[in-house]
Task: structure prediction
Amino acid sequence: MNGACKNCKQVNQPCRTTDRITGRATERGYVDTLERDFNVAVQFIRDYETQLTALGVDIKPFDLKVIRSKPDEEASLQHWDATAVNDQSQVWAADGGLGPTESALASFGHHSGSTTSPDAHDPNMFRAVLPVLKPGCNGDNYLGVSSGLSSLSAIRGTALSVLGMEIDIADFSSSDVDEPLSPGLGQGLYNKSYQSFLRSAMNVNPKVEKVNLPPKDSGLTYSLWYLRVLNPYIPVLHEPTFTSLVCRTPSSSSRVRC
Amino acid sequence: MYDDPDFKPTPAQTVMVHMVFAIMFFQYAARNYENAEQQANLNAQSNLHYHYSLGFYHQLVSSHGLEDLQALTLICAHLRNFPKPGASWMVTNTTLTLAVELGLHRSAKRWAQALPQTNALEIEMRKRVFWSLLAIHVTLSGKLGRPMPMGLQDFDVELPDAVDDDLLSEDSTGESKEGKCAFRVGIEGFKVTLLYLELFSTLYAARRNPSIYLDTVNRLEAKILRWRDQWPMELRQDPIKKNQEIRVFALYSELYALEFRILLRHPAVSMTSSPEFNAESLNICLNSAREMLKIVKVIRHYKSLDTTWYSGAVLLMAITITLYAQWQRRSQITAVDIANLREEMTEWADIMAEVSVSLGKTLDPSVMA
Result:
C-alpha cells in the first residue's frame, strides 16, 4: 500500500494506476518496488561473483550495459568450459599428489591466448582477487589469490588487510632499496634495487674493479660468525673448504683459525 | 685469500668469500642501528662487496659448475634478506633453473655410478645447494603468490645427511660424532619446505578446489604435527641449552611450525561454511599467534630477529589474526580480555618497531598503541 492515494487507503483497496499509452494497470509504487528489488538482486549477484571468483571459478561479471548492448547473445556466466574447473577434483590425487592429470590437462588451454588474462570487455574479472599492481615494482607485487573476506586477508606479499585497514610493510621510500630517481647522475647505482642488480649483473654499471677484503682479524671473525650462525640455515658452504679458502692454510678443524 | 698473495681464486671462490662479507656487513648494519654513521658505513661496504660479486655473474652462469651454484645461492640468500622483495624471486628462479640443468634435483643414486670420480663431499654439497635453493624459492613464491618451482614428483634428490662438516670429505661421509651436525636446523627446514610447497600449491593456488579443502587441511595438519614430533633433541625447547645459537635454532623451528598452522587454518582461505570447523580454525590461529609472540620475544632477547621482509609479514599476520579473532568475539568479550589484548598489542608493537628498524624504517610504537 506504499504510495497509495488517500481514497484507496481509506477503503483499504490496492491503488492501481493505468498507463495511458499501453493501458497496462499496475499498483501504485510498482516502479519503486521494482527498483528496490533490482538493487537487492544486483547486490546478491555481486556477492556471488566475489565468492565464485575467490573459489577460482572463471565467470563473466554481471554488466547491464554489456547485456543491453547485445540482447541477442545467450547470457552465459562462464567464458570457457565449466568442466575445466570441475575436473580439478582430478588434479589432486587422494594422497595429495600434485600436478595436473591428463584429464585436467585436456580441458586446459583450448582457447588461444591466455584464458586467465582479463578480457578487455570485463575489467572486473579479477575483482577482489588480485591487488592493484604497483608500477615499477616488478619484484614486489603479489600475484596470488585472496578471498572475498573483506575484514581479513592472509599474507599478500608485503601487505595484508584487517578490519578495513591495508598494511604494507614495504610501503616506505628508501634510497638503498628503491630504484634511483636519476640513474644518469650515478646515484644509487649500487644499491639493493632490482634494477641495480640487473645493471651490475649484466655489466651495464661501471664495473667495481676491486674491493679489498676487510682486515684479517675482522674477516676471520665475520667468516666464523657466518659459519656458526647463518650457514646452518642455508648450508651451502662446507666449513673446512671455506676456511682453507679464506686462510689458504689447510685446517683440520672447522674453527676458522689461520 | 689472506695468506697467499699469489693465490688466484676462481670467480666462484671470489664471489663466495665476498658474498659472506656482504651478508655479514648487512647483518651487522641491521642490528646495530644505534650508531647511524656506523650503520651507513657497514651498509655501504655490504653493497660494495655485493655489487663486486655481481660483476662475476656472467662467469658464474656460464661456468655452470657446482661451485658456481654455491656462489649464486649465496647471492640469492643475500637478496632474500633485503627489506623489499626486489629481484630476489627472479634471481632465485634463475639459479634454481641452473641447478636443475646441472641435475641437482636428481638422486645421487641415479648418477653416481656413471661418474666414478664423484666423491662423497660433492654428493652432499649438491644436495645442500638444491635443497637450500628450493627452500628459498618456496618461501618467496608462497609469500608473493607466485607458482611453486616444481611439484613433489619432479625431484627425487635425498635430504642431506646430518654429518659434521669435519667428517665430510672427498673420501667418505664417515659417522657423525654423537650425532653432531651444525646444520640440523637447515635439514628440518628442508623437511618443512615440502609441507609448505604442498600448502601453497593447494590452499593458496590460483585454482582451488573446495571439495577437498577439509581433507587437505586435516592431512597437512597431521603432517606438521608429525614434523614437530620427530625433531632432534637439540631443536626441542629447553631452557637449559648449551649455546645461544642452538637455542635460536630451536626457536626458529618452532616459529616455522606456528606460521604453517596459521597459514593452514587462516580464515581468509577457508573453503567451508562449517561454523564448527571455522571456529576451530580461528581458535588454532589465535593460539598459534599468541605462542608466536612468546617465541619472538625470546628471539628478540637474543638479538636474532630475522631481517627479511617476509618474516615481518608473518608477524603482521599473527597480529591481524589476533585482532580479527577478538573482533569476531566482540559480543562476548570482557574487560579482562580487552586488557589482555591491549597488552599483547603493546608487546607486538615493540617487536614490530624493532623489525621496522631492521627493515630500514623507524617506526613510532605509540602509533600502534
